[in-house]
């Protein structure tokens, strides 16, 4: 397992009433929403706008597989940090590892959920797989700490 510094990006979100179930606990599916928002904001910070990508290249990103382990519940008003890293970049896909942490006043956090999310690149009109546009792939590779920029595979010495 890698340390916290190995994540490519982190993004914070407050838990609102709408995110919780009747018991005041974050509804399990909302972690997928939090993960999606974190990936989208990371891409935005790299200058990759999803609508622009679709308009300029005809390609979009879709989620093709998820697996999430829920370790501890988040509750109303918690401040969460979603940490994301690219595990692998293929020709038409990107595999992310994401974690949701509850921030604590002492600066330490508690890991709440961990997910593996597989993203595919597809043609917007046909939804058939297609290559990640070269410039987008290059930007993602250069921003990813854990991916070998030449091959798109996990960096040497990095746990897979």
Automatic annotation (TrEMBL):
Annotated SUPFAM superfamilies: Thioesterase/thiol ester dehydrase-isomerase
Lineage of producing organism: Bacteria, Pseudomonadati, Pseudomonadota, Betaproteobacteria, Burkholderiales
Cross-referenced PANTHER family: 4-HYDROXYBENZOYL-COA THIOESTERASE FAMILY MEMBER (PTHR31793), ACYL-COA THIOESTER HYDROLASE YBGC (PTHR31793:SF37)
The keyword Cytoplasm appears for this protein: no
Gene3D superfamilies: Hotdog Thioesterase
Keyword tags: Hydrolase
Source organism of the structure: Pandoraea fibrosis
Domain (Thioesterase) ranges: 23-104
Pfam family, one: 4HBT
Family: Belongs to the 4-hydroxybenzoyl-CoA thioesterase family.
Keyword hit for Coiled coil: no
Protein name: Tol-pal system-associated acyl-CoA thioesterase
UniProt cross-references to InterPro entries, sorted A to Z: 4-hydroxybenzoyl-CoA_TE (IPR050563), HotDog_dom_sf (IPR029069), Thioestr_dom (IPR006683), Tol-Pal_acyl-CoA_thioesterase (IPR014166), YbgC/YbaW (IPR006684)
Signal peptide: none
């Amino acid at each position: 397992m890698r340390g916290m510094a190995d994540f490519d990006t982190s993004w914070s979100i407050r838990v609102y009433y709408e995110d919780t179930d009747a018991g005041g606990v974050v509804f399990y599916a909302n972690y997928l929403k939090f993960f999606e928002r974190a990936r989208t904001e990371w891409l935005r910070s790299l200058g990759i706008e999803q609508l622009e990508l679709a308009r300029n290249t005809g390609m979009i990103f879709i989620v093709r597989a998820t697996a999430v382990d829920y370790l501890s519940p988040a509750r109303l008003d918690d401040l969460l940090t979603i940490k994301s890293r690219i595990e692998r970049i293929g020709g038409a896909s990107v595999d992310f590892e994401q974690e949701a942490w509850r921030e604590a006043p002492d600066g330490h956090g508690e890991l709440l959920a961990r997910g593996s999310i597989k993203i595919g690149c597809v043609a917007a009109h046909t939804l058939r797989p297609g290559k990640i546009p070269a410039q987008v792939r290059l930007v993602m590779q250069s921003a990813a700490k854990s991916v070998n920029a030449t091959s798109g595979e996990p960096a040497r010495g990095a746990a897979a």
